[in-house]
Amino acid sequence: MRFILTRELGRLAKWLRILGYDAAYYNQDNLSSLIIQALREGRVILTRNHRLIRPSAVKTLLVKAEKINAQIAEICKAFNIRPEPEKMFSRCVICNEALREVAKEQIKDRVPEYVFGTQEDFFVCPQCQRIYWQGTHWGNVAKTLKGII
């Protein structure tokens, strides 16, 4: 499932990426361009903008919830999806690219010494070069999801 989220749903875009979903973020005002991008890339538009909810060739969901936990639950229910642990943290939360595993030795000078010493698996975003590893945020996300789903 591929999504494109409008500017008022930036936080939701990051959460969908954390869950492993391809979630593009569209922060422009040109609605025609948004629809064209969604059609071209086979994406579902997620928005809180009532102007976008009109008959069109692209699937659109008006997100009613205001709080992030309720938004995640709403998306999961609307599309009958459940977070899959093996897909979590597989995309860059900044630029939405699929992460690639990288050898530990290649990132030695790019992560804190403690992290390098305590972690074995590292991933890099091919776009922005940000480094990811399974830190405490992994457990925090899982705990948050238990309360949502």
Estimate what percentage of residues fall within beta strands: 15-25%
Query: What coarse outline follows from CA principal-axis ratios?
Result: globular
Major sheet summary line: 4 strands, parallel
Mean pLDDT: 90
Low-confidence stretches: none
- Any idea how many domains? 2
Give, in spatial order, the strands making up the sheet with the most strands.
2-1-3-4
Supply the number of helical segments. Answer: 5
- The SS-based structural class is alpha/beta
* DSSP summary, beta strand count: 7
Helix content: 25-40%
**Ends distance:** 18 Å
Q: Calculate Rg over CA atoms.
A: 17 Å
The H-and-E topology, N to C, reads as EHEHEEHEHEEH
Quick structural gist:
This protein has helices spanning 10-18, 31-41, 68-78, 113-118, 136-148; strands at 2-6, 22-26, 44-47, 60-62, 100-102, 122-124, 131-133. By secondary structure, the chain is of the alpha/beta class.
What does this structure look like?
The chain is α/β, with parallel strands linked by helices. It is 34% helix and 17% strand. 20% of the residues are buried. The model has no long low-confidence stretch (mean pLDDT 90).
Which descriptors would you attach to this protein?
about 150 residues, alpha/beta, 2 domains, three-stranded antiparallel sheet
